[in-house]
Specification:
155 residues; alpha+beta; 2 domains; three-stranded antiparallel sheet; 6 strands; 43% helix
Length: 155
Amino acid sequence: MRCPYCGGPDTQVKDSRPTEDNSSIRRRRACPDCGGRFTTFERVQLRELMVMKKSGRRVAFDRDKLQRSVEIALRKRDVAPERVERMLNGVVRQLEAQGDGDVPTDRIGELVMEGLKTLDGIAYVRFASVYRNFREAREFNAIVGELESEPEAAK
């Protein structure tokens, strides 16, 4: 693995351990050239997923992009990172488990909304407002009403 600090071609693994949910391996690495230390994560990938954009373009699925959008929805919310990681792993597993390697963006958005609904109601509304492209206040009211009608939703 290349060093992110100096670009050195070889780094040494100093420590490896599974994450709390056993879905990935956390590796602590050190660069012998500059002494920089960093962490990497290794995950199982069952199949190569391609995202089908609304424009018809196909792009490679990027878990990091998905994680960034979820983190934006969760900004300033008190949700444990382990719960977020479990939710993201669940979304990716569901996508990989479907028969086809081509995944429409709509499917990804719906799965993320389902996951956020159980994690945090505010994050769910934030994500839904961007994903569904709300234009009026009544659209917010509809999604909040939907949340309130489900007593087991995250409060």
